[in-house]
Design goal:
This protein is of the alpha+beta class. Helix content is 62%, strand content 7%. It has helices at residues 3-17, 24-34, 43-60, 74-88, 106-118, 139-148, 153-201, 210-221, 227-234, 238-253, 261-266; strands spanning 89-92, 99-104, 124-128, 131-136. Helix 2 packs across helix 3.
């Protein structure tokens, strides 16, 4: 990850660690989610563990923090999951991808995955180097989870970056496609101009149907024009312009004259003049 991405992850975790649950049951649930793992995490999480331990002792009269998942309300479940994420979770934004995972004991991995599925956020799990790993690789799933456990400003910044990255990717895709189309159009126009010059030099251009000669002249005058531009300028169908240019290239490659069915196909069949256009003859 870049430094700015690491800073954003730290800010998000600090924001979550700074949440002060209003309900005693939520405080106990979050403390249970943190367990004994919070003491080895960043300072904000350690301070949260100390704060919750004190509050849990006051709330429960010395009773240890715990959660009965089956009977717990959703708000308690989300508080527990927030604690579990702060204690055992990690978030990566590297290479434009959002990746969140929990590293837990092997026996807990399947349990945690089942609990997340109950909260309508199914996650993949596996055993990796003797540890259980519960993972989301979907930016949408990660965003939903972080929102549900209380992330606010940092999550908005994360989502804004994701949107910006997606827009840049789409813009690059469009620009690359346009560039490729332009290169193909330039190459095609070059071939067509070369074919026109060769046919004119050996006298075959003047023997072509009028529409072919008109299209050839228009191509010479506007080498950069697209097929649609030429068609609009000449009052022809785009397909007629394309057939005329293809005929010119074909004739330049082969020392032969196209007659009969090919001539009829070029003109699109026996038709009269189009209003404001060119007579196909």
């Amino acid at each position: 990850m870049t430094r700015s991405e690491r800073d954003l992850v730290v800010a998000l975790r600090s924001e979550l660690a700074g949440i002060d649950p209003a309900r005693p049951c939520d405080r106990r649930a979050e403390a249970a989610g943190l367990g004994d793992d919070a003491w080895n995490r960043e300072a904000a999480v350690t301070r949260l563990a100390v704060r919750l331990e004190r509050r849990a002792t006051d709330d429960a009269g010395g009773r240890s923090a715990r959660i009965d998942w089956e009977s717990a309300a959703d708000h308690c479940r989300w508080a527990w999951l927030r604690g579990r994420f702060l204690a055992r979770g990690s978030l990566s934004l590297a290479n434009g991808r959002t990746h969140l995972e929990f590293i837990v004991e092997p026996a807990e991995a399947v349990v945690l995955a089942e609990r997340l599925a109950e909260m309508e956020l199914p996650a993949a799990w596996r055993i990796r180097r003797g540890r259980g790993v519960v993972t989301w690789k979907s930016g949408e799933a990660v965003g939903t989870f972080l929102r549900r456990i209380g992330a606010g400003a940092a999550l908005l910044e994360l989502e804004a970056r994701q949107v910006s990255r997606a827009l840049r990717g789409e813009l690059n895709r469009v620009l690359n496609a346009e560039s490729a189309n332009l290169q193909r159009a330039v190459a095609a126009a070059g071939r067509q101009l070369d074919a026109i010059d060769r046919l004119e030099a050996d006298g075959r251009l003047s023997a072509q149907p009028r529409v072919v000669r008109v299209v050839a002249a228009a191509r010479r005058e506007t080498p950069e024009a697209t097929l649609s531009d030429l068609a609009a300028r000449l009052g022809l169908h785009r397909s007629a312009v394309q057939r005329a240019l293809e005929r010119l290239e074909r004739l330049a490659l082969h020392a032969e004259t196209l007659d009969g069915p090919d001539r009829t196909a070029l003109a699109g069949g026996p038709v009269g003049p189009r209003p404001g256009g060119v007579t196909l003859a």
